[in-house]
Specification:
It contains 8 helices and 2 strands. The two termini are 21 Å apart. It has a domain of 81 residues. The protein is mainly alpha-helical.
Amino acid sequence: MAFKFAARTILELGGELISSDAVAVYELIKNSIDARSMDGAEIDFVITISHSDYQQLLSRIEEFADIEEFCDEDLKVLKNEAIDIILPSALQSTRSKYVNMINAATDLDSFSNIFKEAYFETNWIEFRDSGCGMSFEDLDDAFLVIGTPSIDSVNKYSNLL
């Protein structure tokens, strides 16, 4: 008699195996090799503002939050600081998006929220490869060895999930 695992078990195990950003990067590169990518993995870093500048401006926002009489001039100062930290190497498209988002702020609360959102929307890492991915046979014979082997089994045991 064999153990049976629900598909979500595999997702939970996978989540536990990716213990850090470095392991996640390694896994993405390894996956491109496993997918038989002839030219490996291409990694693009799209950085509009540095993380350290982001953290420093968040601290400045907190300082302004302690001021009882926050005014339009204070908001203007924060907006200028946010725009001044854009990296010279930033893509024009992300630079424009970031500036437009920052300029849309109307008060300290909206600025704080928009600044955080702008950071995450204009800074990312993209991984690409030319691999072929996994066929059904690859999934069935290798990747999902401990998983449910067929849709009939999934339907049969779905009430246990």
